[in-house]
Amino acid sequence: MKYLLKGGMVVDPVSKRVDRLDLLLEDGEITAVEQQIEAVGAEVLTMDGCYIFPGFVDLHCHLREPGEELKETILTGTRAAVRGGFSAVACMGNTNPPADSSSVITFIKDKAKEASFPVYPVGCATKKREGEEPSEIGDLVEAGAVALSDDGDSIMNGEVLRRVMEYAQMFDIPVISHCEDMNMTGAGVMHEGMNSTLLGLDGIPSAAEDVHVARDIIIAELTGAHLHIAHVSTAGAVNLIRQAKRRGIHVTAEVTPHHLCLTDDAVKEFDTNVKVKPPLRTRDDVDALIEGLKDGTIDAIATDHAPHRRDEKEVEFNQAPFGISGLETAVPLVWEHLVESNILGVVELALKMAYNPAQILGLPERVIKVGTRANLTVIDPRQKKPVRVDEFLSLGKNSPFDGWVLRGWPVLTIANGVRLE
Amino acid sequence: MKFKQKDVLGLEGLSPQEINLILDTAEPMKEIMTRDIKKVPTLRGHSVITLFYEPSTRTRTSFELAAKYLGADTSSVTVAASSVKKGESLRDTARTLEAMAADVIIIRHSAAGAPHQLARWVSARVINAGDGAHEHPTQALLDMYTIREKKGGLQGLKVAILGDISHSRVARSNIWGLTKMGAQVRVVGPTTLMPPEIDKLGVEVYHHWEEGLRDVDVINVLRIQLERQKKGLFPSIREYTQLYGLDQKKLQAAKSDVLVLHPGPVNRGIEISPDVQDGPHAAINEQVTNGVAVRMALLYLLMARGEQDEVPA
């Protein structure tokens, strides 16, 4: 199959250039990138006014399979990813059974192959995600795991985390930390502050996150391992990561679109779709996250796509599960709130959503060049429409953004050479 | 003035005028309670359902009697807290009650926000009878009614709320209501039972009774949940009683005509000493009477609005 993408603005995160170029794709490979391409027999896709990015990579999502197929499957989740403009995803191992063995990693890879979409599994750092004994990390990597994490369950025992980090170094993969002191969280369901006081809901203090960010950075320094901090949400964590990077510690970090676009004010209506971990924080935290994104403290934007069944979320606030279905809103949210408001340029967007996430996970470099498999995300900045959760391809309709009118929707995604609808 | 709210979910959402209207309306309601035949036909043909997810004696009985005195039909649904997870969801229960054509649903729930969610899901009117640590509007209304009756008004009064502010819906609703009515509110309790940034609600924060209770007109003593001690929020019941239990000694710090309130049920001898509880300053039983009157007023304003402007004779 031959495609000719004509007239788009091609974004290069390495040279930091944006040029109006034509792209020729043949059998999934980029065979020409030039100012004017004429190709006989190619399907011409007019890209006027659109930006063509190296394919976006979501380095933090939950596909729920195996075990919770009513929330999401690898097929529905990857279709949602394509619709959302992602050309690859890394899925967390909090499945049932958990991804703590090579058989589960292999299962996920097989299902991804059936879905014709690149899925990079994150293996569990410890057996059964219990935080007690390291899992068979060598075997997980052999089967295709690209990173290690116990996801939502912080490894509370510092000694265990130290050994996981030390061991992971041999395989050159990052350890992804969900930083949360579970004792300080207690029964917390939202950010602790003025709003939790008003609403009478149990709060999760920022300190619950900061304490573990500090601890994990210190253990990363001790071991020399690559620590990747998931979904940073506090100003304090941004500062700690900034200082750690200055000291040369191998730490990277991500932030989610919802932590950039919402504050804990959103909880006031008791809408369980805003219940998420870490919790939505304050305006000051959001400002610090944006500052961290701009100065490079935060390397990547990741969805933390956490689909749940409708009936699971239609319960009392303190009983609802944490999480937001994010794959299909991430790109327009970031475009509307960061690109349109000139906080991020398109080159920075390519870094935060394509180049850096691929680097963090050790995937092939995300740049558009001849001779590589085509991984492309095309965004039309003129497309403006409301979010409609009922039209999500994801089974998870749990989004607080339903009805939000956003600009900058993904209009074409090519994942590992394949154009999926 | 007409009462325009569909639901009463908290005092945060009511204006001072609306609060005054409720308190004024409660006065003739209290008179009805003194009659030999305590029944008026005002709400005849209306259905009131109490939906309680937490145990309660006085609030539930108070609402049911209030509805009955006004001639409404009442029905109660009790949901054991333990069965919430495996039993029917709040959403499904809401659908069921809606299908039975309930006019008013009075809900108590351990989860903050449950009444707000319910109000979105049903067309019936919803009254919050206490949601988690969030609000308990009718308790605050009856407290304010009692203060107004005893002190002649609320404006300018110094009111201390004493105890576990963090976990108290009574405290939050009282803070909203009293500050709106011009009282000076202070909260008194240990640092570990004081929610963050509470001062932004316009209250003064004290941790020592000597200053906190000084020259106050009213002390509203909160019930202490004994299980908080196990979570490390205070070292022992004994120490709590020593530092915050209202006894004769601490009462001396307040004005000589101080009014003492307690939402009940009382842990006798813990947050309040028996001699204060049963002494001349306390109005705990009158609070219960006033609770029925205030709830009658609320039901009347919610259900008979638009149909009648005059309070029933």
TrEMBL record, chain B:
Aspartate/ornithine carbamoyltransferase Asp/Orn-binding domain ranges (all copies): 155-302
InterPro entries, sorted: Asp/Orn_carbamoyltranf_P-bd, Asp/Orn_carbamoylTrfase, Asp/Orn_carbamoylTrfase_sf, Asp_carbamoyltransf, Asp_carbamoyltransf_Asp/Orn-bd
Aspartate/ornithine carbamoyltransferase carbamoyl-P binding domain mapped to chain residues: 6-149
EC number(s) recorded for this UniProt protein: 2.1.3.2
Catalytic activity: carbamoyl phosphate + L-aspartate = N-carbamoyl-L-aspartate + phosphate + H(+)
GO biological process, one term: 'de novo' UMP biosynthetic process
Class in the EC hierarchy, top level: transferase
GO MF annotation, one: amino acid binding
Pathway: Pyrimidine metabolism; UMP biosynthesis via de novo pathway; (S)-dihydroorotate from bicarbonate: step 2/3
Keywords annotated in UniProt: Pyrimidine biosynthesis, Transferase
Binding site for L-aspartate: 86, 169, 223
Entry keyword Transmembrane: no
UniProt GO cellular component terms: cytosol
PROSITE patterns assigned to the protein according to its UniProt record, in alphabetical order: CARBAMOYLTRANSFERASE
Residues bound to carbamoyl phosphate: 58-59, 108, 136, 139, 264-265
PANTHER family, per the entry: ASPARTATE CARBAMOYLTRANSFERASE, ORNITHINE CARBAMOYLTRANSFERASE, MITOCHONDRIAL
Similarity comment: Belongs to the aspartate/ornithine carbamoyltransferase superfamily. ATCase family.
Task of the protein: Catalyzes the condensation of carbamoyl phosphate and aspartate to form carbamoyl aspartate and inorganic phosphate, the committed step in the de novo pyrimidine nucleotide biosynthesis pathway.
Subunit structure, interactors included: Heterododecamer (2C3:3R2) of six catalytic PyrB chains organized as two trimers (C3), and six regulatory PyrI chains organized as three dimers (R2).
Protein name: Aspartate carbamoyltransferase
Gene that this polypeptide is encoded by: pyrB
